[in-house]
């Protein structure tokens, strides 16, 4: 790969293996390194190294579950100083060898693979609980700290985990509530995208700053409104709520397409009005989940001194009607080029 880093700039990869800094031992052997971060997925790294003297098959042989920490050290990048960008701690998940030439490839995830949260299939039932309570129970049993960063805390009369891992289960029921899930740095994090979309852009990028870009309208699954119906056995009647967006994304005004939902889960509230207000929240969340990817794409840039992360917003200019505020949904960083490939989607206008 072409090294896009100018000679006056220096980029160094620091690797700490099981608490020991091994950078000086492997720096000349590193072939490539990549870092990935994504909504609803584990952060990951991939390290490819020359297996000099067969050491990675003998005394240095890595084991699954061992811990790797990685940092980028930038010198003379945007200012005449040294900047350390911490990528985090990762647990080895996959090891492979090939040759000639002799090479070892190590992949690691941001979650401890020895934890049961990913693999152990469970069947159990929660009753009369909130989404936050379920998430807290799962966090506690897996020795994780819970960060619940959502205003909408869905209530459940009954929720069933059916022969699925706790991580897949909490992702499933969170997505139904319009909430994303990540595990990072020993934390189980539940968050609403809107909270990040409201933040100020961390950087403005003109089209001339991009190595490449690709933007597209997703017209297959967008809606102008959502109509939700629910039969309340307590009140003995069917209830309805409809939520409309200002405009169906990517379509001329007046283009109508309704999303219909027959809500079967418990709807809290003592009065008809309270239940309708709750249904309207569900409808708004469902509509937003469908429409949020109306304009999405990818850009490729040279990495910055300030770390750019998933959930950050950026401002794009020079792209006509596609200019504006975007949220980053995935980050991939390549070493030694320090090229950043960003998956992005356009931030929706306030309803």
UniProtKB/TrEMBL annotation:
Superkingdom of origin: Bacteria
Protein name: Late control protein D
Organism: Fusobacterium mortiferum
